[in-house]
């Protein structure tokens, strides 16, 4: 049985509308980081030379898009909000709307290799890990004791959904270190994890 | 008879809200590609000299606007979503939100002519063709077997609506090649096709 | 008696959502045209020296804000859409989302005076006049024969509401010419007209 | 007893949608002010050297996010709009969407210290104070005589809620002066106040 709504609780309509707005804007602003290449040579060669900015664009588009899909799934289960949930959701939106910045770091520094490529990719990884943590915190806040969901999950389902979040968070955190071994490999692991999240999800 | 909704299916409200957001932002961000002309000479002459950026702006505004109108029509027929539809819709949104980038390539290179104008226009054409393909995939996913629509179309109507999509996709794909014969002509064909889509549409 | 809804007609929900998005983005993107002043001297003096960009920002914010308020009022009366209305609304959104461009022309050229200030202000005026025309066309499409409104206005109310639109359009058009006599005066007339529209409106 | 709705009054749906849009865009545009550092040295050192832009980003994200949360709370109590409320809300949105500009002033000038750091921080403080004033005006308009709320607050609750707004406005106004004593201290006070508003709010 779910906990009864209190005065402090509200339905999730405006939270979802605001979140949809931030996700939609962050995913669309990524295009502003794509620069029309300058310099000499044919346009075709310059575009090919700029492959890291397109790889970073696609990766971030996939991450934000899939996080939106999962936010959508999660808020089919979450039926009420309270003030802590609003702030945890803001924390998630902070990392989502910050993502274009490390994306542009990766765009600019990945192609050059060396320590700067690793730092850029590590900052990008840290941003993803922080987003995954915020996602977990939202879920914990909502499901504990069936506080903000329509029907409590049961102890086993709760543990298994939290475990799945923890694994994702751990992998993103591990790519921070991996970036110093191989920045392109770390980006590849993140792309693979995005695809995994695309096919697996919180059951709602 | 339409297929019954499964656990994995949801209504289309948040998909439409998120898509409206991305369409609205992509169409409005186009203005950021318009540069205030620098250099010598009167402002009036500099603005006229910059005609390619205004032509590209209008063309992309028309394309995104009309795709929004048709998305709107299509989702009057589509009444449920499932996970594959969410991802196919994300694919469409990817091409919509990327469009400001090839638009700025066309703005900068069309006026100069030569191979760079053709490459810029071909990249722009490829973006449009990929968007048309994503549109078709959404429609196929939704109508096959009446999976996600209120009332199945019937075999004849299904074939005719898919044919219309295929023609559009084929023409956009053909403008990729046409761009190497004449970049301005390819842009003109795309503008004409946008107008055609403005008057003809998925019957919903 | 209003005309019965046809197959081609739909409710106004998504049109309003998409329009709200474009208005909200256009009004917020204006801030990106504000440049942090470079060069020598104290920050305070540089900010004061940049007054034209703040005047243009405030003017465009007021225009878009008030047009949103009136769009809101208008769509309390309009209860159905059809395909022509969707396109006329897109036309209005075109001029709304283009506005940051002439705003930045005014920001950059008004302070310098001379013919370039007049051209910048005339382009700005033309944008406003075209938006006012699009607004009138939406209203004509909706009210003629009570086509898309809940209750027809009656011939007298219809004429008087159209007259009010025509006056606004005429004044904006007149500021195109006025810009060549005095660009700051034309901007002042537009600010005054925005205030007038703020207090007077379509009765709904 | 609340006042009966008049013809001029409407429900708050589109006001909330438009406001959500502007809040969401303003909070997400902040990222565009973050510049990838140029110049020599390792990327890591350059990022650390750029701490003022990250402090300003976080501060503005917190301010806009918390103002959105409180707008959300406030419009759970406010159930009707009228034309003055629409304009007071536009005034609030003006200050919200302007905030990225003083944020970029602080980003650029806070690190250098001296009078320019104080001017940048004072402009930022003035923007926050003006937003707080607009917030109070919305609240006054809505609660006086129970005009636009579901159930009047009672004289005591009305006074106490207004007092809380006044205190916030006064503190923001005081940081304008404080900026000339110590710009970083003023920024710290604003961050503390944002946290306070995060935990305390209009009871709705």
TrEMBL record, chains A, B, C, D:
Keywords of this entry: Ion channel, Ion transport, Membrane, Potassium, Potassium channel, Potassium transport, Transmembrane, Transmembrane helix, Transport
Protein's UniProt keywords contain Transport: yes
Catalytic reaction annotation: K(+)(in) = K(+)(out)
One protein family per Pfam: TMEM175
InterPro entries with a match to the protein in the record: TMEM175-like
Record localization: Membrane
Top-level taxonomic group: Bacteria
Membrane topology: Multi-pass membrane protein
Keyword check for Transport: yes
Membrane-spanning ranges: 17-34, 54-73, 85-102, 122-140, 169-199
Primary location: membrane
PANTHER family: ENDOSOMAL/LYSOSOMAL POTASSIUM CHANNEL TMEM175, ENDOSOMAL_LYSOSOMAL PROTON CHANNEL TMEM175
Family: Belongs to the TMEM175 family.
Protein name: TMEM175 family protein
């Amino acid at each position: 049985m779910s906990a009864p709504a209190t005065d402090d609780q509200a339905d999730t309509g405006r939270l979802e509308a605001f979140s949809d707005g931030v996700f939609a804007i962050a995913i669309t602003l990524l295009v502003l980081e794509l620069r029309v290449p300058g310099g000499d040579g044919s346009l075709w060669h310059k575009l090919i030379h700029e492959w890291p900015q397109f790889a970073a664009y696609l990766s971030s588009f996939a991450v934000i898009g899939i996080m939106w899909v999962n936010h959508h799934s999660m808020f089919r289960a979450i039926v009420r909000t309270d003030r802590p949930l609003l702030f945890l959701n803001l924390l998630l939106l902070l990392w989502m709307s910050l993502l274009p910045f490390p994306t542009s770091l990766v765009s600019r520094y990945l192609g050059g290799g060396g320590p700067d490529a690793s730092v850029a990719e590590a900052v990008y990884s840290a941003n993803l890990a922080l987003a995954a943590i915020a996602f977990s915190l939202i879920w914990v806040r909502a499901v504990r004791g069936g506080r903000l969901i329509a029907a409590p999950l049961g102890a086993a389902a709760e543990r298994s959904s939290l475990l799945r979040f923890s694994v994702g968070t751990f992998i993103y955190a591990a790519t921070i270190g991996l970036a110093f071994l191989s920045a392109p490999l770390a980006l590849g692991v993140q792309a693979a994890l995005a695809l995994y999240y695309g096919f697996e999800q919180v059951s709602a």
